[in-house]
Amino acid sequence: MEPRCLRLAILASGRGSNFLAILEAIKQGRLHAQIKVLISDKPDALALQKAEEAGIPHIFINPRLHPDRQSYESEIVKELQSREIDLVILAGYMRLVGKVLLQAYPHRILNIHPALLPSFTGLHAQRQAVEYGVKFSGCTVHFVDDGMDTGPIIEQVVVPVDPGDSEDDLADRILAEEHKLYARVL
Ligand code: GRF
Q: Which atom of ligand 1 is nearest to the CA of 14?
């Protein structure tokens, strides 16, 4: 029997390169899934433009039109449920996830972080790694809980930090691995 095609939703706030890498894996037949919608909290996110160009349904949901996170996330959940989404994929989504989303999709929300968790959580993980002077960093795919980059780890890839690396050098090297890792984990 054919495995059921995973119905994915992407939540993204930024440039959307992980979204595009997942889409490419689907097109190449490496991942049996469909991206049913991309949702962004930023009206000018490049990810929305990339979704438009790729013909993927995309929505901007404005958090400012909501009195609190619960109300904002309820609107997201409504969009996800109407599309019968199986997995919610955070790809550069710059908000903490709250209980409305977590309760609607228990153990079905994944995130990718550009460091070897539990090291270097939060913003500028690559800069933190360079400044700390670690010799190896990497990326992590994990289940999302209500903390910042704290949920159970699913898979990691190690990336060396070369002497003299700038934050951008390391970010580029990690990003190339992120693009392979996310599709593989899914
Ligand atoms: C990635 O580095 C990811 O690990 C982090 O945010 C960045 C998103 O990049 N969570 P992109 O929008 O997928 O290009």
A: 12
Quote the pTM value.
0.96
Residues in contact with ligand 1 (CB, 6 Å cut-off): 12, 14-18, 91-92, 112-114, 175, 178
Q: Is 103 exposed, middle or buried (0-12, 13-18, 19+ CB in 10 A)?
A: exposed
Q: What is the pLDDT of residues 101-117, one digit of tens each?
A: 999 999 999 999 999 99
Q: How far apart are CA 37 and CA 130, in angstroms?
A: 35
Question: pLDDT band for position 4 (50/70/90)?
Answer: confident
Cis amide linkage into residue 118, ω under 30° from 0: yes
Q: Is 66 a catalytic residue?
A: no
pLDDT for the residue numbered 177 = 98
